[in-house]
Amino acid sequence: MRFIDIAKTRYSCRDYKPDHVDEKELALVLEAARVAPSAINYQPTCWICNFNLPLLKQICDLPEHIEPIAMIPLGYPNDQSNIQRHETKRKSKNEIIHWEKF
After folding, report:
1. How many other C-beta atoms lie within 10 A of the C-beta of residue 54?
2. How confident is the model over 35-58, as pLDDT tens digits?
3. Does the predicted TM-score (pTM) go above 0.70?
């Protein structure tokens, strides 16, 4: 698959099914995160897997110098992506690309 095809078909899911994510699928996602490149192989990430936000807030007794910076929801989409949105909801190339001067 070409990168442009991947970029045009990806979307940000905002509605998930209540279905449980299979542990094997979750393990594949976490393995991809583990082997992803990092600057000078610093590997500055730590992953806390939790499926209950109130429980997460209650039990994540993090050291003071550790600051969570992102939560990544994983699940199965409850909605369908509209891949045609790139033609109607994106700025035109002329609005965002400038050659040699602004």
Report:
1. 7
2. 989 888 888 777 777 666 677 767
3. no
17-20 — which CB contacts under 8 Å span 24+ positions? 17/75, 17/76, 17/77, 17/78, 19/75, 19/76
pLDDT at residue 92, rounded to an integer? 83
Q: How many CB atoms lie within 10 A of CB 68?
A: 10
| C-alpha of 48 from chain center | 15
Domain 3-94, CATH:
3.40.109.10
Structural contact between residues 30 and 49, judged by C-beta atoms closer than 8 angstroms: yes
Domain map of the chain by residue range? Answer: 3-94
